C-alpha cells in the first residue's frame, strides 16, 4: 500500500517547514486533549473544538508575523 511513499522526501519536507510541523502537532495535541477531557467529563461540545482551532490559527498567524519581523530585524542588523 505504501510502497511508493518516499519517507526521505517526507522528512525533508518536514525539516524545511518547521512552523507547519509545530502548528499541526500542536493542533492535533490540543484536539486530542480536548476530546479526552470532554469524554471523561461528559461535557463535549462542538463549539469547544471550534474555539481550540481558532486559537491554533491565531498562534500560527502570530508565529508567521514573528518570523517575518525577526527576519527583517536580522537583515537590518547586518
Key words describing this protein structure:
single chain, 78 residues, mainly alpha, 85% helix
Number of helices, counting only DSSP H or I runs of 4 residues or more: 3
Structural class: mainly alpha
Please describe the biggest sheet, giving its number of strands, its sense, and whether it closes into a barrel: none
- The helix content, as a percent range, equals over 70%
Average per-residue pLDDT, rounded, comes to 80
**Anisotropy-based shape:** flat
Low-confidence stretches: none
Head-to-tail CA distance between termini: 50 Å
Number of strands: 0
What is the succession of H and E elements? HHH
Q: Indicate the proportion of strand residues.
A: under 5%
Report on this model:
The chain is an all-alpha fold and 78 residues long. 85% of the residues lie in helices and 0% in strands. It is built from three helices and no strands. It starts with 6 loop residues before the first helix and ends with a helix. The mean pLDDT is 80.
